[in-house]
Design goal:
Organism: Eruca vesicaria subsp. sativa (Garden rocket)
InterPro entries: AUF1-like, F-box-like_dom_sf, F-box_dom, LRR_dom_sf
Structural class: alpha/beta
Pfam families: F-box
Mean pLDDT: 86
Distance between the termini: 51 Å
Helix content: 25-40%
Shape: globular
Protein name: F-box domain-containing protein
Length: 444
């Protein structure tokens, strides 16, 4: 290590995920210790093991360790401080009186001490608070960040109750993430006004909203998971390219996003979902138990080439008679790739068993189907054969069977499909609830 150029050593030190490792390396190496001040990133995480240890033996308090790292650094451009996700399962009963503030990281008095030391060159800031210490105390940390960090480009705050009083405009900020936050900005007016040049916005589980409206002229990517409370949602973003939106039962959902290319929508009740047709939308993922109404009543656009459909749960018998593969292909007539969840596969197979696949539109463009199959039997073989007979351009079938599928049934399905449809390239895999898809074989 002593023979490496200083610039390379500093790059190595900057890539350490936890600055606690860096502090230990200073003790072990004179070279590391001499170059410590050149490191421009401070990353410190309180792990579950460290937290447990601090309650049984005497250890240096977490905030003290962090302050020592800040005081010993210069030219800091990135700061990340937080608690590990493993601590999120703790309850108020787990707290003891002595540690009621030790991991309260959006504490304004704590932030006032360390932030001014690094704010001049700070470009990236991430604070992940300890929810059971922060949720009942409103923090003005956004105000002090906005007034001190003029060069900040990326800001991330998690697990806190945030006020917007005193928040001022941050013209250089391009990336904002608020996750599991109680936010005192009912309609997002202050957020819109103070971050005018945002390009990436992530609002994950942000509460305290009533009629939120996201309005950014430069926004390109947005991920928004909405709580149950807001009934009216709006996004006005003329340059938005990618959107992930999860909501429950909005009475009104307005999207003014004409350049949207990739869209993932999860909604429980589609009655209030209505928006103008997307002229450039290429990739769409829809998740809803109200799938039939969602795809038949909503105009997603006529350029969608990649579609994923997840019905979430089995639909009512009356809906099963209407919701089939033809319903999907009629609503999206130019798709080339179709991905189906196991519930959706079951629903459209039931529709096929009741009436077959007849008069389907959009069969010429479909090239690939990827599907999860929960229970395999011979009805799947006849269903697949009917799909291939109707969709003459289909050349790629990717089927995943549940890991508990009987091996004999699985082998029968594979044999019947591959032998009778030689023009199709077959891929086979397994899936499980909560697990990853595993591809086990490919064929032609």
């Amino acid at each position: 290590m002593d023979e490496l150029p200083s610039e390379l050593v500093v790059k190595i030190l900057n890539r350490l995920n936890d600055s606690a490792d860096l502090a230990r390396s200073r003790v072990a190496s004179k070279r590391f210790n001499s170059l410590w001040r050149e490191v421009n990133a401070v990353n410190l995480v309180c792990t579950l093991s460290r937290y447990s240890k601090s309650r049984s033996i005497a250890v240096t308090p977490f905030k003290t360790v962090f302050m020592n790292l800040i005081e010993d650094s210069r030219n800091v451009r990135s700061v990340s401080v937080g608690v590990d996700k493993a601590l999120s399962g703790m309850s108020f009963d787990d707290l003891v009186e002595d540690d009621s503030d030790e991991l309260y990281l959006t504490d304004i008095e704590f932030v006032k001490v360390w932030l001014p030391r690094v704010c001049d060159d700070l470009e990236v800031l991430s604070i992940s608070d300890f929810w059971i210490q922060s949720c009942w105390r409103r923090s003005d940390v956004l105000a002090i960040i906005s007034s001190n960090c003029s060069k900040l480009v990326k800001l991330e705050v998690k697990n806190a109750w945030l006020s917007v009083v005193g928040l001022t405009q941050m013209s250089n900020l391009r990336h904002l993430t608020l996750e599991f936050i109680r936010l005192d900005d009912e309609n997002l007016e202050k957020v819109n006004d103070c971050f005018p040049f945002l390009q990436v916005l992530n609002l994950i589980g942000v509460g305290g909203l009533k009629e939120p409206k996201i309005h950014f002229l430069h926004l390109e990517s947005c991920h928004w998971t909405v709580s149950n409370a807001p009934l009216s949602l709006a996004i006005v973003a003329p340059n938005l390219l990618e959107l992930r939106l999860k909501c429950n039962k909005p009475k009104s959902l307005v999207l003014e996003t004409p350049k949207l290319v990739k869209f993932s929508l999860s909604v429980d009740d589609a009655e209030g979902v209505s928006f103008s047709e997307f002229r450039e939308l290429d990739t769409l993922e829809v998740m809803s138990p109200d799938m039939y109404r969602l795809i038949t009543n909503t105009r997603f656009g006529n350029k969608i080439r990649k579609l994923a459909v997840d019905s979430v749960k089995s639909i009512e018998d009356s809906e099963r008679l209407k919701f089939g593969l033809g319903t999907i292909l009629e609503a999206f007539p130019v798709i080339a790739s179709l991905t189906l969840s196991h519930v959706t596969w079951s629903n459209i197979k039931t529709h096929f068993q009741s009436g077959g696949l007849v008069h389907m539109k959009g069969t010429d463009t479909l090239k690939q189907i990827t599907a999860r199959v929960e229970t395999s039997d011979y009805t799947d073989v006849s269903f697949i054969r009917s799909i291939l007979n109707n969709c003459k351009g289909l050349t790629d079938m990717r089927l995943m069977m549940h890991q508990d599928t009987d091996p004999g049934v699985r082998d029968l399905l594979i044999s019947a499909c591959t032998m009778s449809n030689p023009r199709v390239r077959w891929s086979w895999g397994t899936w499980s609830e909560g697990g990853e898809d595993i591809w086990v074989s490919n064929g032609t």
